[in-house]
Prior knowledge:
It is a single chain. It contains nine helices and no strands. It is mostly helical and about 300 residues long. The protein has a domain at about 25-225. The relative contact order is 0.09.
Amino acid sequence: MATAPMGFATLIEMWIFICVPLWGPWATTVAWVLWIIDVVAAAAVTLSLSFILISQRHITSLDRITAIQLLPIAATIVAAGVGARVADILPNESHALGTLLVSFILWGMGTPLALVVLVMYYQRLAVHKLPPREMIVSCFLPLGPLGFGGFGIIFMGKVARELLANSNILDPLAGRLAYVLGTFISLLMWSFGLIWLVFALATVFHSSPFPFNMGWWGFTFPLGVYAANTMELGAEMDLMFFKVLGTILSAAVLLLWALVTSRTAQGAWRGSLFYAPCLQNLTLKDEDDGRDSDQHRA
């Protein structure tokens, strides 16, 4: 459910990059409408699934917490970053400012909550150690909210610098201040993500070999958005280090995508692919409920 609005947001970005320059104003309006739909879906997923997590009883111990809980939260963070792209192309200034404001709100909804979950996840790793081999790819998921959160805040600051330069909102310095703070916050989130990247690589090396399953697609999105944040920092700060590293990470994403795609095709052909280790908790819950019902009837 969480990956649906995130994937849809990616399609909106590609629409902005390709279709808007070719087709003009009506394509811009379509991008805006599609983004509004994505915002509703992303906010619904973040709020509902996060509440379900704290209201249901099937996760009753720390060792059953995984980084997969970051996916519903990342939906609003991705929608925020795409919203900045949309605000940058809207011709109507009031619509652009409203879009940018909603993007800041979405970023504020998702990023602090993601940091809270990362604290829980780190405690789970410290107490109960590494996750099972079939779920080892989930160790890359912390890069998702940190990478796109850093990309989103720096791009929102860049758009705010342009939109607020001649507006009567707040102070004339507000746009430049948002840009400077956004750049520093992005750098801090990139640095925090670097720790999790090292942890993830060390975990994969320590636990290899591990079986292929659909969870391997968890390699692509987190590393991809971390690469996007790296390249955006390189563009804004004009530092060759980030430009080169962003290129290396982008190449790694392409290679990983090709590898996972080929393994997915092989698994689908053989019929051994469709196994979701992240749903094991639900299976265990159903089994436990069935045993409890049998004991009650007995």
